[in-house]
Each structure stands twice: as structure tokens, then as C-alpha cells.
């Protein structure tokens, strides 16, 4: 697995979950039922899911910037 060598900026070296923050790849998932995909408002549902994931993406990007 591809991990950063250094601890992310602004986090103490003894942060209890520092190894999780060093990961360079994460996977987020959201269960999608067939009915959701077939719904007329699927694009809206997908947008809601992606908007919910966005803050984590921003946080991880900032944490890994070197």
C-alpha cells in the first residue's frame, strides 16, 4: 500500500491514528439499490452522496500535501 513517509502537517507525531492518515488511497462506498439507479432523480441522489464525501476528500488532500 502506498503511504506517505512523514506524518501529515498539523498533526502531532504521537497522534493515535497517524498510520491511517499516512495512507494515500481511500475508498468510500455507498450502497445503491437498483430502484435508486432506475429512479428519475438518480442524478440528485448521486450528487447528495458525492457532496457527503467531499469534506473527507478535502481533509485528506490537505493532510497529505507535503
The helix-strand sequence is HHH
Note the main sheet.
none
The total beta strand count reads 0
Strand percent estimate: under 5%
Low-confidence stretches: none
Mean pLDDT: 84
Distance between the termini: 18 Å
Task: Provide the fold topology.
Blueprint: H1 18-22, H2 34-38, H3 42-64
What would your notes on this structure say?
This protein has 66 residues and is an all-alpha fold. It has one domain (18-64). Helices cover 50% and strands 0% of the residues. The chain is built from 3 helices and no strands. It has helices at residues 18-22, 34-38, 42-64. The model has no long low-confidence stretch (mean pLDDT 84).
State the gist of this model.
The chain has 66 residues and is an all-alpha fold.
Properties at a glance:
single chain, 66 residues, mainly alpha, 3 helices, 50% helix
